[in-house]
Amino acid sequence: MNLRSRLFLDYYFGGFLHAVLRLPTMFLGKLLRRDHDLSKCREIAILKLLGGGSLVIAYPALLALRRLPGLARLTLITTPAIAPFGALLGIFDEIVVIRDNRGLLTLAADSARAFRRFFRHDALIDLEIHSRLTTVFALLTAARNRVGFFTSISFWRRHLNTHLLFCNVTNGICDFYDQLAALFGTSPVSAAECEREFRRRLGEYGFEGDLFRLASAPARAGLSRERMRQEWVEVASRQVARWDLGTVSVHPSAAPADRAQLEPVAILLSGQVQNRAVVRNLAGKATLQKLAATPGTALVDAEERRPELRSRPRNSGFEEDPFRLAIAPVCSGLSRERMLRREEWVGIVAQRIARYEPAMVELHLLGGPADRAELEQMTTLLEERLQGRAVVRNYAGKTSLRESVRIIAAMDEVLCIDSALLHFSRLLGRLTISFWGPTDPRTLLRPNSEGLDEIHYVKIPCSPCVHMSHQPPCKGQNICMRLAADPAAPVSRNQPWVLKG
To answer: Could you tell me the domains of the chain?
Structure first.
Protein backbone atom coordinates (compact mmCIF):
# COMPACT_ATOMS: atom_id res chain seq x y z
CA MET A 1 0.00 0.00 0.00
CA ASN A 2 1.17 3.50 -0.74
CA LEU A 3 0.97 6.31 1.78
CA ARG A 4 -2.28 7.75 0.44
CA SER A 5 -3.98 4.32 0.68
CA ARG A 6 -2.83 3.91 4.27
CA LEU A 7 -4.12 7.36 5.22
CA PHE A 8 -7.46 6.57 3.55
CA LEU A 9 -7.71 3.28 5.47
CA ASP A 10 -6.78 4.98 8.72
CA TYR A 11 -9.39 7.71 8.36
CA TYR A 12 -12.42 5.70 7.24
CA PHE A 13 -11.86 2.22 8.65
CA GLY A 14 -10.41 3.69 11.85
CA GLY A 15 -13.44 5.97 12.20
CA PHE A 16 -15.78 3.00 11.76
CA LEU A 17 -13.98 0.97 14.47
CA HIS A 18 -14.11 3.94 16.86
CA ALA A 19 -17.88 4.07 16.52
CA VAL A 20 -18.21 0.31 17.06
CA LEU A 21 -15.85 0.06 20.05
CA ARG A 22 -16.78 3.17 22.02
CA LEU A 23 -19.79 1.83 24.02
CA PRO A 24 -18.24 -1.60 24.84
CA THR A 25 -15.07 0.16 26.04
CA MET A 26 -17.02 2.52 28.29
CA PHE A 27 -18.99 -0.42 29.73
CA LEU A 28 -15.90 -2.56 30.43
CA GLY A 29 -14.08 0.41 31.98
CA LYS A 30 -16.82 0.89 34.57
CA LEU A 31 -17.13 -2.86 35.15
CA LEU A 32 -13.44 -3.73 35.63
CA ARG A 33 -12.35 -0.56 37.51
CA ARG A 34 -8.65 -1.16 36.79
CA ASP A 35 -5.91 0.75 38.59
CA HIS A 36 -4.45 3.37 36.23
CA ASP A 37 -1.66 4.67 38.46
CA LEU A 38 1.22 5.45 36.07
CA SER A 39 3.81 5.43 38.87
CA LYS A 40 3.47 1.63 39.07
CA CYS A 41 4.41 1.02 35.43
CA ARG A 42 7.48 -1.16 34.95
CA GLU A 43 7.11 -1.59 31.19
CA ILE A 44 6.25 1.18 28.71
CA ALA A 45 5.70 0.82 24.96
CA ILE A 46 5.89 3.76 22.54
CA LEU A 47 3.79 3.59 19.36
CA LYS A 48 5.09 5.63 16.39
CA LEU A 49 4.41 4.62 12.77
CA LEU A 50 5.09 7.74 10.67
CA GLY A 51 7.72 10.47 10.90
CA GLY A 52 11.08 9.54 12.40
CA GLY A 53 11.76 13.19 13.19
CA SER A 54 9.01 13.12 15.82
CA LEU A 55 11.05 10.63 17.85
CA VAL A 56 13.97 13.08 17.80
CA ILE A 57 11.71 15.95 18.88
CA ALA A 58 10.40 13.76 21.71
CA TYR A 59 13.93 12.63 22.71
CA PRO A 60 14.16 14.73 25.93
CA ALA A 61 10.90 13.22 27.21
CA LEU A 62 11.74 9.69 26.03
CA LEU A 63 15.17 9.85 27.65
CA ALA A 64 13.51 10.99 30.88
CA LEU A 65 11.18 7.96 30.72
CA ARG A 66 14.15 5.69 30.05
CA ARG A 67 15.76 6.96 33.27
CA LEU A 68 12.71 6.35 35.49
CA PRO A 69 13.96 4.44 38.58
CA GLY A 70 11.22 1.80 38.43
CA LEU A 71 11.21 1.24 34.66
CA ALA A 72 12.43 -2.18 33.56
CA ARG A 73 11.74 -2.01 29.82
CA LEU A 74 11.08 0.65 27.17
CA THR A 75 9.86 -0.66 23.80
CA LEU A 76 9.17 0.99 20.44
CA ILE A 77 6.38 -0.28 18.17
CA THR A 78 6.95 1.06 14.67
CA THR A 79 7.23 0.42 10.93
CA PRO A 80 10.28 -0.54 8.83
CA ALA A 81 10.79 3.09 7.73
CA ILE A 82 10.92 4.43 11.30
CA ALA A 83 12.77 1.55 13.01
CA PRO A 84 16.27 2.90 12.10
CA PHE A 85 15.47 6.19 13.85
CA GLY A 86 14.51 4.36 17.04
CA ALA A 87 17.63 2.19 16.84
CA LEU A 88 19.85 5.25 16.34
CA LEU A 89 18.49 6.99 19.44
CA GLY A 90 19.65 3.97 21.42
CA ILE A 91 17.19 4.26 24.32
CA PHE A 92 14.82 1.40 23.50
CA ASP A 93 15.31 -2.09 24.91
CA GLU A 94 13.35 -3.59 22.03
CA ILE A 95 11.95 -2.45 18.69
CA VAL A 96 8.89 -4.31 17.39
CA VAL A 97 8.30 -3.77 13.67
CA ILE A 98 4.88 -3.91 12.02
CA ARG A 99 5.45 -4.26 8.28
CA ASP A 100 3.13 -1.88 6.49
CA ASN A 101 4.93 -2.16 3.16
CA ARG A 102 4.00 -5.73 2.19
CA GLY A 103 0.25 -5.64 1.79
CA LEU A 104 -2.78 -5.96 4.05
CA LEU A 105 -2.23 -9.61 5.01
CA THR A 106 1.28 -8.97 6.33
CA LEU A 107 0.09 -5.84 8.11
CA ALA A 108 -2.75 -7.76 9.76
CA ALA A 109 -0.48 -10.68 10.77
CA ASP A 110 2.17 -8.42 12.30
CA SER A 111 -0.51 -6.42 14.12
CA ALA A 112 -2.00 -9.61 15.57
CA ARG A 113 1.41 -10.70 16.86
CA ALA A 114 1.89 -7.27 18.41
CA PHE A 115 -1.52 -7.52 20.12
CA ARG A 116 -0.41 -10.75 21.80
CA ARG A 117 3.03 -9.35 22.63
CA PHE A 118 1.63 -6.27 24.40
CA PHE A 119 -1.60 -7.72 25.76
CA ARG A 120 -2.31 -6.13 29.16
CA HIS A 121 0.95 -4.17 29.01
CA ASP A 122 1.60 -1.70 31.84
CA ALA A 123 1.47 1.38 29.59
CA LEU A 124 1.27 2.13 25.87
CA ILE A 125 1.94 5.70 24.67
CA ASP A 126 0.52 6.60 21.24
CA LEU A 127 2.62 9.37 19.65
CA GLU A 128 0.46 9.45 16.51
CA ILE A 129 -1.60 12.56 17.17
CA HIS A 130 -3.67 12.41 13.96
CA SER A 131 -4.17 8.65 13.52
CA ARG A 132 -7.38 6.75 14.29
CA LEU A 133 -6.14 3.19 13.81
CA THR A 134 -3.31 3.60 16.33
CA THR A 135 -5.97 4.42 18.95
CA VAL A 136 -7.73 1.18 18.01
CA PHE A 137 -4.42 -0.72 18.16
CA ALA A 138 -3.72 0.55 21.69
CA LEU A 139 -7.26 -0.34 22.77
CA LEU A 140 -7.09 -3.92 21.44
CA THR A 141 -3.89 -4.61 23.40
CA ALA A 142 -5.98 -4.03 26.55
CA ALA A 143 -2.99 -2.19 28.03
CA ARG A 144 -3.70 -1.08 31.58
CA ASN A 145 -2.73 2.51 30.71
CA ARG A 146 -3.26 3.88 27.21
CA VAL A 147 -1.82 7.38 26.85
CA GLY A 148 -2.59 9.51 23.81
CA PHE A 149 -3.30 13.02 22.56
CA PHE A 150 -6.46 14.72 21.41
CA THR A 151 -6.90 17.86 19.35
CA SER A 152 -9.80 20.23 18.81
CA ILE A 153 -11.22 17.85 16.18
CA SER A 154 -10.23 14.43 17.57
CA PHE A 155 -13.05 14.16 20.11
CA TRP A 156 -13.50 10.56 18.91
CA ARG A 157 -10.64 9.44 21.16
CA ARG A 158 -12.64 10.12 24.30
CA HIS A 159 -13.28 6.97 26.38
CA LEU A 160 -10.92 4.86 24.21
CA ASN A 161 -7.75 5.94 26.06
CA THR A 162 -7.22 5.98 29.81
CA HIS A 163 -5.13 9.19 29.69
CA LEU A 164 -5.60 11.91 27.07
CA LEU A 165 -3.41 15.01 26.79
CA PHE A 166 -4.72 18.02 24.91
CA CYS A 167 -2.52 18.96 21.96
CA ASN A 168 -2.97 22.42 20.47
CA VAL A 169 -1.64 21.97 16.93
CA THR A 170 -0.99 25.71 16.61
CA ASN A 171 1.69 25.52 19.33
CA GLY A 172 4.99 23.65 19.64
CA ILE A 173 4.59 19.87 19.55
CA CYS A 174 7.65 19.53 21.80
CA ASP A 175 5.68 21.07 24.68
CA PHE A 176 3.09 18.32 24.51
CA TYR A 177 5.68 15.55 24.16
CA ASP A 178 7.34 16.97 27.28
CA GLN A 179 4.04 16.59 29.13
CA LEU A 180 4.51 12.83 28.86
CA ALA A 181 7.49 13.07 31.20
CA ALA A 182 5.46 15.11 33.68
CA LEU A 183 2.61 12.58 33.48
CA PHE A 184 5.00 9.84 34.67
CA GLY A 185 6.41 12.01 37.47
CA THR A 186 9.67 13.18 35.88
CA SER A 187 11.01 16.11 33.82
CA PRO A 188 12.37 16.23 30.24
CA VAL A 189 16.15 16.05 30.02
CA SER A 190 17.98 19.31 29.25
CA ALA A 191 19.24 20.03 25.71
CA ALA A 192 22.91 19.91 26.78
CA GLU A 193 22.46 16.55 28.50
CA CYS A 194 20.53 15.20 25.50
CA GLU A 195 23.40 16.17 23.19
CA ARG A 196 26.00 14.53 25.45
CA GLU A 197 23.95 11.34 25.78
CA PHE A 198 23.19 11.10 22.08
CA ARG A 199 26.82 11.71 21.08
CA ARG A 200 27.90 9.01 23.51
CA ARG A 201 25.48 6.52 21.96
CA LEU A 202 26.34 7.65 18.42
CA GLY A 203 29.97 6.74 19.03
CA GLU A 204 33.12 8.15 17.51
CA TYR A 205 32.13 9.81 14.30
CA GLY A 206 34.14 9.61 11.14
CA PHE A 207 33.04 9.04 7.59
CA GLU A 208 34.46 8.12 4.22
CA GLY A 209 34.58 11.75 3.19
CA ASP A 210 36.95 12.74 5.99
CA LEU A 211 39.68 15.01 4.70
CA PHE A 212 42.91 13.25 3.77
CA ARG A 213 45.84 15.62 3.28
CA LEU A 214 48.85 15.01 1.11
CA ALA A 215 51.64 17.27 2.30
CA SER A 216 54.52 17.45 -0.15
CA ALA A 217 57.82 19.08 -1.00
CA PRO A 218 58.17 18.99 -4.81
CA ALA A 219 61.74 20.34 -5.06
CA ARG A 220 64.45 17.66 -5.47
CA ALA A 221 68.14 18.12 -6.06
CA GLY A 222 69.58 17.12 -9.42
CA LEU A 223 66.39 17.62 -11.43
CA SER A 224 65.49 20.35 -13.84
CA ARG A 225 62.54 22.54 -12.89
CA GLU A 226 60.35 21.10 -15.67
CA ARG A 227 61.30 17.50 -14.84
CA MET A 228 60.66 18.14 -11.14
CA ARG A 229 57.18 19.44 -11.93
CA GLN A 230 56.27 16.47 -14.12
CA GLU A 231 57.62 13.88 -11.72
CA TRP A 232 55.96 15.38 -8.68
CA VAL A 233 52.58 15.76 -10.43
CA GLU A 234 52.75 12.10 -11.54
CA VAL A 235 53.56 10.96 -8.02
CA ALA A 236 50.87 13.07 -6.36
CA SER A 237 48.25 12.04 -8.96
CA ARG A 238 48.95 8.35 -8.39
CA GLN A 239 48.76 8.86 -4.64
CA VAL A 240 45.38 10.61 -4.93
CA ALA A 241 44.00 7.85 -7.16
CA ARG A 242 45.24 5.18 -4.75
CA TRP A 243 42.78 6.13 -2.01
CA ASP A 244 39.03 5.75 -2.32
CA LEU A 245 38.37 8.92 -0.35
CA GLY A 246 35.65 11.51 -0.29
CA THR A 247 37.98 14.53 -0.42
CA VAL A 248 41.72 14.90 -0.82
CA SER A 249 43.53 18.13 -0.03
CA VAL A 250 46.99 18.39 -1.63
CA HIS A 251 49.37 20.90 -0.04
CA PRO A 252 52.62 21.64 -1.90
CA SER A 253 54.95 23.21 0.63
CA ALA A 254 58.19 25.15 0.23
CA ALA A 255 59.95 28.33 1.26
CA PRO A 256 58.29 31.73 0.64
CA ALA A 257 60.68 32.40 -2.26
CA ASP A 258 59.40 29.30 -4.06
CA ARG A 259 55.73 30.29 -3.97
CA ALA A 260 55.65 31.61 -7.54
CA GLN A 261 57.43 28.51 -8.81
CA LEU A 262 54.84 26.26 -7.18
CA GLU A 263 51.87 27.99 -8.82
CA PRO A 264 52.35 26.14 -12.16
CA VAL A 265 52.74 22.88 -10.20
CA ALA A 266 49.46 23.47 -8.37
CA ILE A 267 47.65 24.37 -11.60
CA LEU A 268 49.01 21.32 -13.42
CA LEU A 269 48.06 18.99 -10.56
CA SER A 270 44.58 20.53 -10.32
CA GLY A 271 44.00 19.55 -13.93
CA GLN A 272 45.17 16.00 -13.28
CA VAL A 273 42.96 15.43 -10.22
CA GLN A 274 39.93 17.45 -11.28
CA ASN A 275 36.85 16.73 -9.10
CA ARG A 276 39.02 14.44 -7.01
CA ALA A 277 41.09 16.83 -4.91
CA VAL A 278 41.63 20.44 -3.98
CA VAL A 279 45.19 21.73 -4.39
CA ARG A 280 46.45 24.45 -2.04
CA ASN A 281 49.80 26.17 -2.53
CA LEU A 282 51.19 26.56 0.99
CA ALA A 283 54.66 27.83 0.09
CA GLY A 284 55.63 30.30 2.78
CA LYS A 285 52.48 29.57 4.82
CA ALA A 286 53.25 26.26 6.50
CA THR A 287 56.40 24.20 6.84
CA LEU A 288 56.52 20.56 5.81
CA GLN A 289 57.23 19.65 9.43
CA LYS A 290 54.05 21.39 10.57
CA LEU A 291 51.99 19.65 7.91
CA ALA A 292 53.48 16.28 8.77
CA ALA A 293 52.59 16.75 12.45
CA THR A 294 48.93 17.46 11.64
CA PRO A 295 46.62 14.45 12.28
CA GLY A 296 45.18 13.05 9.06
CA THR A 297 48.21 14.09 6.96
CA ALA A 298 50.54 11.89 4.94
CA LEU A 299 53.82 12.91 3.32
CA VAL A 300 54.30 12.30 -0.39
CA ASP A 301 57.61 12.41 -2.21
CA ALA A 302 59.12 10.77 -5.27
CA GLU A 303 59.77 7.55 -3.33
CA GLU A 304 55.97 7.14 -2.96
CA ARG A 305 55.87 6.16 0.67
CA ARG A 306 52.45 4.59 1.27
CA PRO A 307 50.91 6.19 4.38
CA GLU A 308 48.38 4.79 6.77
CA LEU A 309 44.97 6.45 6.51
CA ARG A 310 44.01 8.10 9.78
CA SER A 311 40.75 9.68 10.81
CA ARG A 312 40.68 13.43 11.09
CA PRO A 313 39.95 14.56 14.65
CA ARG A 314 37.27 17.20 15.11
CA ASN A 315 39.74 19.91 16.14
CA SER A 316 43.10 19.44 14.45
CA GLY A 317 44.19 23.05 14.76
CA PHE A 318 45.28 23.06 11.13
CA GLU A 319 44.75 26.53 9.66
CA GLU A 320 43.65 25.18 6.27
CA ASP A 321 40.85 22.98 7.65
CA PRO A 322 37.94 23.06 5.19
CA PHE A 323 34.58 24.64 5.82
CA ARG A 324 32.20 21.70 5.93
CA LEU A 325 28.60 22.13 4.87
CA ALA A 326 25.99 19.35 4.78
CA ILE A 327 22.87 19.66 2.65
CA ALA A 328 19.77 17.58 3.47
CA PRO A 329 17.40 18.59 0.65
CA VAL A 330 14.96 15.64 0.65
CA CYS A 331 12.22 14.30 2.90
CA SER A 332 9.85 11.35 3.26
CA GLY A 333 6.85 10.75 1.03
CA LEU A 334 4.60 12.62 3.46
CA SER A 335 4.28 16.06 1.84
CA ARG A 336 7.07 16.26 -0.72
CA GLU A 337 5.97 19.87 -1.12
CA ARG A 338 8.48 20.59 1.65
CA MET A 339 11.31 20.30 -0.89
CA LEU A 340 13.09 23.10 -2.74
CA ARG A 341 14.09 22.94 -6.39
CA ARG A 342 17.64 22.06 -7.42
CA GLU A 343 18.29 25.51 -8.83
CA GLU A 344 17.16 27.12 -5.59
CA TRP A 345 19.61 25.03 -3.59
CA VAL A 346 22.46 26.06 -5.89
CA GLY A 347 21.70 29.74 -5.30
CA ILE A 348 21.38 29.24 -1.53
CA VAL A 349 24.69 27.36 -1.29
CA ALA A 350 26.53 29.92 -3.43
CA GLN A 351 25.32 32.76 -1.21
CA ARG A 352 26.23 30.83 1.92
CA ILE A 353 29.77 30.12 0.78
CA ALA A 354 30.32 33.72 -0.33
CA ARG A 355 29.38 34.90 3.15
CA TYR A 356 32.27 33.14 4.89
CA GLU A 357 34.91 32.97 2.18
CA PRO A 358 36.62 29.86 3.59
CA ALA A 359 39.87 28.59 2.12
CA MET A 360 38.25 25.35 1.01
CA VAL A 361 34.66 24.10 1.06
CA GLU A 362 33.33 20.56 1.32
CA LEU A 363 29.68 20.03 0.40
CA HIS A 364 28.06 16.79 1.55
CA LEU A 365 24.67 15.90 0.03
CA LEU A 366 22.58 13.53 2.15
CA GLY A 367 19.65 11.39 1.06
CA GLY A 368 18.36 7.86 0.55
CA PRO A 369 18.80 5.44 -2.37
CA ALA A 370 15.67 6.80 -4.09
CA ASP A 371 17.16 10.31 -4.01
CA ARG A 372 20.46 9.48 -5.69
CA ALA A 373 19.50 10.51 -9.23
CA GLU A 374 18.04 13.80 -8.02
CA LEU A 375 21.13 14.59 -5.97
CA GLU A 376 23.44 13.63 -8.84
CA GLN A 377 21.81 16.36 -10.91
CA MET A 378 22.20 18.76 -8.01
CA THR A 379 25.86 17.77 -7.71
CA THR A 380 26.42 18.63 -11.38
CA LEU A 381 24.77 22.03 -10.98
CA LEU A 382 26.78 22.81 -7.85
CA GLU A 383 30.08 21.84 -9.48
CA GLU A 384 29.31 24.04 -12.50
CA ARG A 385 28.39 27.01 -10.27
CA LEU A 386 31.23 26.58 -7.77
CA GLN A 387 34.11 25.59 -10.06
CA GLY A 388 37.36 25.53 -8.10
CA ARG A 389 35.52 26.74 -5.01
CA ALA A 390 34.19 23.52 -3.47
CA VAL A 391 34.32 19.75 -3.55
CA VAL A 392 30.86 18.16 -3.77
CA ARG A 393 30.08 14.66 -2.48
CA ASN A 394 26.77 12.86 -3.03
CA TYR A 395 26.12 10.33 -0.25
CA ALA A 396 22.56 9.47 -1.31
CA GLY A 397 22.16 5.70 -1.11
CA LYS A 398 25.74 5.21 0.08
CA THR A 399 25.32 5.80 3.79
CA SER A 400 23.03 4.41 6.45
CA LEU A 401 21.03 6.72 8.69
CA ARG A 402 23.69 6.36 11.41
CA GLU A 403 26.47 7.25 8.97
CA SER A 404 24.51 10.27 7.69
CA VAL A 405 24.05 11.52 11.24
CA ARG A 406 27.76 11.02 11.92
CA ILE A 407 28.49 13.16 8.88
CA ILE A 408 26.23 15.86 10.33
CA ALA A 409 28.11 15.62 13.64
CA ALA A 410 31.33 16.64 11.85
CA MET A 411 29.83 19.61 9.98
CA ASP A 412 30.25 23.34 10.51
CA GLU A 413 26.77 24.05 9.15
CA VAL A 414 23.76 22.07 7.97
CA LEU A 415 21.34 23.30 5.29
CA CYS A 416 18.02 21.47 5.31
CA ILE A 417 14.27 21.44 4.95
CA ASP A 418 11.77 20.06 7.47
CA SER A 419 12.99 16.46 7.78
CA ALA A 420 14.37 14.10 10.40
CA LEU A 421 17.97 15.11 9.63
CA LEU A 422 17.06 18.67 10.64
CA HIS A 423 16.13 17.47 14.12
CA PHE A 424 19.27 15.32 14.41
CA SER A 425 21.36 18.36 13.45
CA ARG A 426 19.75 20.43 16.20
CA LEU A 427 20.11 17.58 18.70
CA LEU A 428 23.85 17.52 17.91
CA GLY A 429 24.18 21.27 18.43
CA ARG A 430 25.08 22.07 14.81
CA LEU A 431 24.40 25.47 13.25
CA THR A 432 21.24 24.62 11.28
CA ILE A 433 19.79 26.68 8.42
CA SER A 434 16.30 25.45 7.55
CA PHE A 435 13.62 26.31 4.96
CA TRP A 436 9.90 25.95 5.69
CA GLY A 437 6.57 26.28 3.89
CA PRO A 438 3.94 23.51 4.11
CA THR A 439 4.91 23.04 7.78
CA ASP A 440 5.42 25.69 10.44
CA PRO A 441 8.72 25.93 12.37
CA ARG A 442 6.89 27.42 15.34
CA THR A 443 5.07 24.13 15.90
CA LEU A 444 7.87 21.68 15.07
CA LEU A 445 11.09 23.21 16.40
CA ARG A 446 12.11 22.90 20.01
CA PRO A 447 13.32 26.31 21.29
CA ASN A 448 17.10 26.63 21.09
CA SER A 449 18.80 28.80 23.71
CA GLU A 450 22.18 28.56 21.94
CA GLY A 451 21.10 30.61 18.93
CA LEU A 452 22.19 27.87 16.53
CA ASP A 453 19.20 28.18 14.20
CA GLU A 454 18.63 30.25 11.09
CA ILE A 455 15.01 29.81 9.98
CA HIS A 456 13.62 30.86 6.60
CA TYR A 457 9.82 30.94 6.59
CA VAL A 458 7.33 33.32 5.00
CA LYS A 459 3.85 32.99 6.47
CA ILE A 460 1.19 33.03 3.75
CA PRO A 461 -2.57 32.33 4.12
CA CYS A 462 -2.44 28.68 3.00
CA SER A 463 0.62 27.78 5.11
CA PRO A 464 0.92 25.48 6.95
CA CYS A 465 -1.24 22.92 5.14
CA VAL A 466 0.25 19.60 6.33
CA HIS A 467 -2.17 17.94 8.79
CA MET A 468 -4.66 20.68 7.94
CA SER A 469 -5.69 19.26 4.55
CA HIS A 470 -5.69 15.73 3.13
CA GLN A 471 -3.88 17.05 0.08
CA PRO A 472 -1.95 20.29 -0.48
CA PRO A 473 -4.35 22.91 -1.89
CA CYS A 474 -1.63 24.11 -4.29
CA LYS A 475 -1.20 20.59 -5.74
CA GLY A 476 2.57 20.82 -5.58
CA GLN A 477 3.18 24.42 -6.65
CA ASN A 478 4.40 25.18 -3.08
CA ILE A 479 4.92 28.90 -3.51
CA CYS A 480 5.60 28.96 0.24
CA MET A 481 8.94 27.25 -0.44
CA ARG A 482 9.70 29.65 -3.32
CA LEU A 483 9.31 32.50 -0.83
CA ALA A 484 11.39 30.72 1.83
CA ALA A 485 14.29 30.51 -0.63
CA ASP A 486 13.76 34.05 -1.88
CA PRO A 487 11.30 36.35 -0.05
CA ALA A 488 11.46 38.73 -3.03
CA ALA A 489 10.32 36.07 -5.53
CA PRO A 490 7.65 37.44 -7.93
CA VAL A 491 4.80 35.14 -6.80
CA SER A 492 1.42 35.93 -5.30
CA ARG A 493 1.29 35.52 -1.53
CA ASN A 494 -2.48 35.13 -1.48
CA GLN A 495 -3.19 32.69 -4.30
CA PRO A 496 -6.81 31.38 -4.35
CA TRP A 497 -6.59 27.60 -4.62
CA VAL A 498 -9.87 26.42 -6.14
CA LEU A 499 -11.00 22.78 -6.05
CA LYS A 500 -13.80 21.97 -8.45
CA GLY A 501 -16.41 19.25 -8.12
So the answer is: 3-189 (3.40.50.2000), 211-300 (no CATH), 323-485 (3.40.50.2000)
